[in-house]
Amino acid sequence: MDITNLIEKAIEAKENAYVPYSNFRVGAALLTKSGKIYTGCNIENVSYGATNCAERTAVFKAVSEGEKEFQAIAINGDNGDYLPPCGICRQVLSEFADDSLKVILANSAEDYKVISLGELLPGAFSSKNLNCVTT
Ligand code: THU
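# tetrahydrodeoxyuridine complex -> structure
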């Protein structure tokens, strides 16, 4: 896996962030198991709850094009420090990836930290928990 390239794509994707409310840009680059890269940025809305994070933008772009198997995601934000994905994005990632997904928190192509989705979201709610128990 070319981590440098994935991080560079995440940093590039940040350029398209639509952030008139927070002024806080985030970019993400998602690597499929087949080797394709889907990028995403955060897209805000005046109704703040309708905002979409960079990570989910990347996941939804990939899934909408038929890709559902992922090996890594790189994330870069404007905070100047490793930016961890929010809780909703962790849950969305866990829908399509197992605990081994590599989450690359990148300040730059040279300065990054790799953590697994399992570490970020232990005990995730999954389809296994959907079985109803009726009396
Ligand atoms: N944001 C992301 O894009 N990804 C995250 O994981 C954390 C938060 C965005 C949402 C909003 O546009 C801005 O950062 C401030 O919360």
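# post-check
Residues 3-130 form a domain with the Cytidine Deaminase; domain 2 fold (CATH 3.40.140.10).
The pocket of tetrahydrodeoxyuridine is lined by residues 19, 22, 24, 26, 42, 44, 51, 53-55, 85-86, 89 (CB under 6 Å).
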